Amino acid sequence: MEEKKLYKAMTEMNPQIYKDFYKFYFRDHYKTFNIISTTIGILLLAAAVAMYCMKFGLVWVALALWIGIMGVIYPRVSYKKTYKRVKDTKQTTRFTFYEDYVTEKTSGETGDYKYSELVRAVETKNYIYLYHNENNISIVVKSEVKDNGAEGLCKLLRSKIQNYSIKKTLP
Question: Domain locations in the chain?
Fold first, then answer.
């Protein structure tokens, strides 16, 4: 006897989904680097102002200013290189959620994954990221969840996946 399908969803990748994902991924995985880089950048910007006021050489002021600006800006744009490489890649994934596992179908491949085997899940405003491991992540678009809606799916996943978190500030 086949198990009852609880939820269905489809993710058709497009540039906006890729952009949202890579922004999320780089912020999430490089959090410590981003904090350190931004802090050092701000300190160097303050040092550049202080050096200018103390009549240091303009080369030193410019160097501190340039490195400080890069330290503040780089963490916010680091995802763009990866995003530009894949943004036009077309892929459609169909998800079917059951009581104890999820089925993912892409072009030519089908995989069944028990919820207990998923490393973690992260819910954002528009997406649910299902981590098979730290580098293999499935993206479920919340607006595309059928059969009982995204709230019901989120509730199911919260009860089934031990490491489930909600990040409302990200897309």
Answer: 7-14+89-166, 31-77
φ/ψ of residue 161, rounded to 5: -105, 120
Contact 144, 150 (CB under 8 A): no
Question: How many contiguous H segments (helices) and E segments (strands) does the chain have?
Answer: 5, 8
**pTM, to two decimals:** 0.83
pLDDT tens per residue, range 25-53: 998 888 899 999 999 999 999 999 999 99
CATH topology of domain 7-14+89-166: PH-domain like (2.30.29)
